[in-house]
Specification:
Layout lengths: L2 H23 L4 H20 L3 H20 L3 H6 L2 H25 L5 H6 L6 H8 L5 H30 L3 H30 L3 H6 L7 H19 L4 H15 L4 H25 L9 H21 L10 H10 L4 H13 L5 H29 L12
């Protein structure tokens, strides 16, 4: 490792430590602060970054951990307890968003990957916002998390489809790789069923996968085995590694209901080091000067507006669900800031050479704008529409 590479790694580690403190002072989401820090140090280390594999490895590993945690956060018990009609309506919400995304792309003759920008939904920032507002302890917050999780599953399916399309087109190779994806999903389903059967036969295995705080940290080790099993399977069928990580976390959440301690331990490790490195690395990939171009700012403002308007219009289908009007009003705001997956879209677009640097910069700027504007508006609406005193229960019916 050269001296400049060592200085880059030191700068990133220092930023991972300092930026949460600065971000809170500036009332910024920590992830946004870390991306901005990456943009800043990119002025000095932009050339060195592309020649430092260890930083790129740590960033990709951080993204894998982030997506695994996103899978772990899905509350399947709550989904199972939700009325089937409501689940279908939540899915219908995103079907309308997807249809609207492709309609907008067709009307404005934009690159087809922009549909991915419009339809992408993620719970990476939604979860901390719900915790901060206190909604996470209420039925309303759990409903928003379920809606966001369904949107994230939709998003990952479309990301996978777009990757196959841009890599192989509508060809025989594309069909073969689609079959490989189906095989991957079938193998994942079979592994889930085998695992559930083993847990039923040998209940003591739960301890092996959930134990934390002992000298061997068997629960943490078992989870990392789980992560890399699904990452390896995804790699074998040419899927994005983050899709494998997300599915691994999701299947673990299906099997184990009492996983709070594991989530806290892995979250402490991930958010303490690897995930901040990922966000800083994202900033390093871009040139800060690109963000001051009028085209980038104009495109980002347009993308931000369309993302919200599509969800606002699609929320009409929720009037037929069991949700209250005030909660339905909150849905467009809660599903409009997909920071991590928007970043992934920009990075994939550059990697697959279907986006130029200006378009990718506009998408990254959109990720920053949506994660600044909509969580702030969501907090204001929660304070106005929801009473969060300890004795009050929020009804969603």
């Amino acid at each position: 490792m050269s001296k400049m590479e060592a200085l880059l790694l030191l700068s990133m580690c220092a930023g991972a430590f300092v930026m949460p403190l600065i971000s809170r002072r500036l009332h910024l989401p920590v992830a946004v602060g870390e991306i901005l820090y990456g943009l800043f140090i990119g002025i000095f280390f932009g050339d060195v970054f592309h020649q430092t594999p260890v930083v790129q490895f740590l960033g990709e590993f951080g993204f894998i951990i982030l997506m695994y945690l996103a899978g772990l956060e899905i509350n399947f018990q709550k989904i199972h307890q939700t009325r089937r009609t409501d689940i279908l309506l939540y899915c219908a919400l995103f079907v309308v968003v997807v249809a609207g995304a492709f309609f907008v792309v067709g009307q404005f003759r934009q690159p087809v990957i922009f549909a991915l920008v419009y339809l992408t939904t993620a719970v990476g920032l939604l979860f901390p916002v719900l915790k901060e507002t206190g909604l996470i302890r209420k039925d309303a917050g759990q409903s928003l998390l379920i809606i966001g999780s369904i949107g994230e599953i939709f998003s990952l399916l479309f990301i996978t489809g777009f990757v196959l399309y841009f890599k192989f087109g509508l060809s025989r190779d594309s069909f073969i790789h689609l079959l490989e994806v189906v095989v991957f999903l079938v193998v994942a389903f079979v592994l889930l069923k085998i695992f559930q059967l083993l847990i039923w036969w040998y209940p003591n295995l739960r301890t092996l996968f959930l134990t934390t705080g002992d000298s061997s940290e068997s629960g943490i080790r078992a989870n990392f085995v789980n992560i890399f099993v699904f990452v390896a399977l995804a790699s074998l069928v040419n899927l994005e590694l983050i899709v494998g990580a997300f599915l691994g976390g999701m299947l673990f959440a299906l099997v184990f209901k009492e996983r709070e301690q594991i989530m806290q331990r892995i979250g402490a490790f991930g958010y303490g080091f690897l995930i901040p490195i990922f966000f800083i690395e994202v900033g390093l990939q871009f040139n800060v000067r690109d963000f001051f171009h009028a085209d980038v700012l104009r495109t980002a403002a347009m993308l931000t507006a369309v993302i919200f308007l599509l969800r606002l219009l699609a929320s009409v289908v929720l009037l037929f669900s069991g949700l209250s009007i005030r909660l339905i009003l909150l849905v467009p705001f809660a599903t409009s800031f997909a920071l991590t997956l928007l970043i992934a879209t920009a990075a994939l677009g550059l990697e697959l050479k279907v986006l130029d640097q200006t378009q990718a910069s506009a998408i990254l700027m959109t990720a920053i704008l949506t994660s600044l504007i909509f969580p702030a508006l969501m907090r204001i609406i929660v304070r106005r529409l929801f009473s969060l005193t300890p004795d009050e229960s929020l009804s969603i019916s």
